[in-house]
Specification:
Elements (H helix, E strand, L loop, with lengths): L18 H11 L1 E11 L2 E12 L2 H6 L13 H30 L2
Antiparallel strand pairs: 1-2
């Protein structure tokens, strides 16, 4: 006579979904985790932290209108090039404004 085991079946056996399936579903649909932390002392609010976590694939995030990484120079080479081009244009403009003043100072 065999006794049923009290240990759960290992992943990949039985009818349970494996980790890859779960991850695929989460990335395909997306998941939002939100929470607030408040620290009060004698009814005086000292600190409030709002936490928002979105886990989704890049395609799903773009569908939801989330694409902040495309404009972040630290994460996107295209955004970095745009920032450098803007900075270069500003410096050229400042230089063009300073050149006539310098020429007037040097004129006898």
């Amino acid at each position: 006579m065999t006794m049923p085991s009290r240990l759960p079946e290992p992943y990949g056996q039985g009818s349970g979904a494996n980790l890859a399936d779960i991850l695929e579903r989460v990335l395909d649909k997306g998941i939002v985790i939100a929470g607030d932390i408040r620290i009060n002392l004698l009814d005086i609010e000292l600190l409030t932290i709002k936490l928002r976590l979105i886990v989704a694939s890049v395609d799903k995030a773009k569908e939801m209108g989330i694409d902040w990484w495309e404009d972040d120079p630290a994460l996107s080479s295209g955004a970095r090039r745009k920032e450098l081009a803007r900075e270069n244009a500003e410096l050229r403009e400042r230089l063009a404004q300073l050149e006539p003043a310098r020429e007037q100072e040097e004129a006898p």
